[in-house]
Amino acid sequence: MSQQMLLQEMMDKFGFKKENLAAYLGVNGKILNSWFASSLSTEYTPMPNGVFNYISEFIEKNSLSGVYNLPLRNKISFFGKNHLLSVEQFDRDSIEEVFSIADLMVPIARRKKISRVLEGAVLGNLFFEASTRTRVSFGTAFCRLGGSVCDTTGFTFSSMAKGESIYDTSRVIAGYVDIMVVRHPDRGSVSEFARASNIPIINGGDGPGEHPSQALLDLYTIKNEFSRLNKSLDGAHISLIGDLKYGRTVHSLIKLLSLYKNLKISLVSPIGLEMPESIINYASRNGNIVSVESSVKKGLSGADVVYATRVQKERFESEFEFRYESDFHINSEKINAFCNKDTIIMHPLPRDSNVGSNDLSTDLNNDDRLAIFRQSDNGIPVRMAIFAILLGVENIVHRNLRDVEWSRPVYISFADAAFHNL
Ligand code: NCD
């Protein structure tokens, strides 16, 4: 077989694009093109025997097992590297795989089982922007798999305050830890970290860009809640409400939702804080109807899921950029008037609970439609799954489980009761 045919077979069988294949083989695009070129052309170079044999063995091994069983981290790779930077890395099948791994993690996340599968591994949690749950849940998810965590928070106490570049910071930390979670106020900054790094990088929020792990846990929550309610995601009505311009959680979530079919997605935001056009266009596929609403009543009516978001004031260019209207306060009065008995109310949190804020009200706290704490709890198994996948241990987690020997008092709150079938 010619080297060109062999390379083509590898691409066809494993769904690689040229850039994935180049990164996978550890060569640049120019070299790969020279291997693909006709042997009569001046661009042609022969492929080293070692590479030829490696690819042949790889194809043979996977063909023999009957399935092209690439590890999940390679199926969702970012240009051939094992990072999690955007939800655009997923398709429906890979999402289902992530969720079944998250299901396996639930007994560990709920403190029934102990795993040490990541013993010896160190997570670098680099947060250059405010965070509570994302930083702590990534940290605890890693600890619950047996790893250790090193944290840094804010610019003030990091060397970036001394003028260090993203490249240098990333390269240095990659020499200390095995995987990094990075949050940074600039869109695209986490990809810059990834370019300088030879270890996996997870985007924990890049300014108004994306927040892929949050979208995965949001979708995991929707699917869990729907299975309890005997609903299916295809054909559902999802309302996203609030600051859709700067909210990175909704940017990632709507892209993931668009992998499902025949959804009705209502985007409800005050004038000036609408979802960017490019994301709406991306999400309008698979028969999904995305409609922009300025009326809260119209946008929420009949929704299966209401996903509210906080106004991202910290991203406003001036404090006068926008004045939020009281209409966007989501409280029990509006939910009772416009929604159904089985509508799920979600929020990525934090919500602004100050008096007079226009965020999700606390008057829904004893309403079992409020799924926000079940949602934040789901952050642990989903983030454990992400770590297991990126560090290649998702298939051995179940082999390393033992029972916990300690106990803690368990109180099931009203909002959790529905979830526990009480
Ligand atoms: C969100 C974020 O940081 O993007 N929070 C989170 O990670 N759960 C939402 C927000 O800050 O409003």
TrEMBL record:
Its EC number is 2.1.3.2. Residues 83-223 form the Aspartate/ornithine carbamoyltransferase carbamoyl-P binding domain. Pfam families: OTCace, OTCace_N. GO terms for biological process: 'de novo' pyrimidine nucleobase biosynthetic process; 'de novo' UMP biosynthetic process; amino acid metabolic process. Keywords: Pyrimidine biosynthesis, Transferase. Residues 235-389 form the Aspartate/ornithine carbamoyltransferase Asp/Orn-binding domain. It catalyses: carbamoyl phosphate + L-aspartate = N-carbamoyl-L-aspartate + phosphate + H(+). This is Aspartate carbamoyltransferase. Belongs to the aspartate/ornithine carbamoyltransferase superfamily. ATCase family. It comes from the Bacteria. One of its GO terms (cellular component) is cytosol. Pathway: Pyrimidine metabolism; UMP biosynthesis via de novo pathway; (S)-dihydroorotate from bicarbonate: step 2/3. Catalyzes the condensation of carbamoyl phosphate and aspartate to form carbamoyl aspartate and inorganic phosphate, the committed step in the de novo pyrimidine nucleotide biosynthesis pathway. One of its GO terms (molecular function) is amino acid binding. PROSITE patterns: CARBAMOYLTRANSFERASE (PS00097). Gene3D superfamilies: Aspartate/ornithine carbamoyltransferase.
